[in-house]
Amino acid sequence: MWVAPDARGSGVAAELVDAVKSRGRDQGHECVYLDVAPENTRAAHFYMKQGFVFINEWEPLESPPYQGADHTLPSVELSRPRLCWPEACSAREKIASRKSAR
């Protein structure tokens, strides 16, 4: 999700997140997951205010395509942390992690 700079602080981002949560519930989903870039602390704090919590999961990402058309820059492994809503989903993740570790 991205909100234009001139619309930030207007409440539109919260409305978008609420719409996603509502649509997810309406379609029978119990949890909403999202990923946020580690350096995007503003977004991470925003999502936490919306009830999301960090879970012990990272989404692997491919190297960004802007590394150079001549491919002279080395490949970089990237990942970003995952969040979930509602908080009860984080407990499910912990249980699933323990079961898969056995």
Globally, the shape reads globular
Strand sequence of the main sheet, in spatial order?
A: 1-3-2
Strand-residue fraction?
15-25%
Sheet with most strands:
3 strands, antiparallel
The N- and C-terminal alpha carbons lie at a distance of 36 Å
Average pLDDT works out at 74
Low-confidence stretches: 73-77, 94-102
Percent helix, as a range, is: 25-40%
Number of helices: 3
**Structure classification:** alpha+beta
Secondary structure tally: strands: 3
Based on CA atoms alone, the radius of gyration comes out at: 17 Å
**SSE pattern, N- to C-terminal:** HEHEEH
Overview of this protein structure:
It is a single chain. The protein is an alpha+beta fold and 102 residues long. The protein contains 3 helices and 3 strands; from the N terminus they run H-E-H-E-E-H. The protein has a domain at 31-62 and 77-102. It has helices spanning 12-26, 41-49, 88-101, and strands at residues 32-35, 53-61, 78-85. The protein is globular and about 35 Å long. Residues 73-77 and 94-102 have low confidence and may be disordered.
Task: Name some characteristics of this structure.
102 residues; three-stranded antiparallel β-sheet; globular
Task: Give the arrangement of secondary structure elements.
Layout: H1 12-26, E1 32-35, H2 41-49, E2 53-61, E3 78-85, H3 88-101
Antiparallel strand pairs: 1-3, 2-3
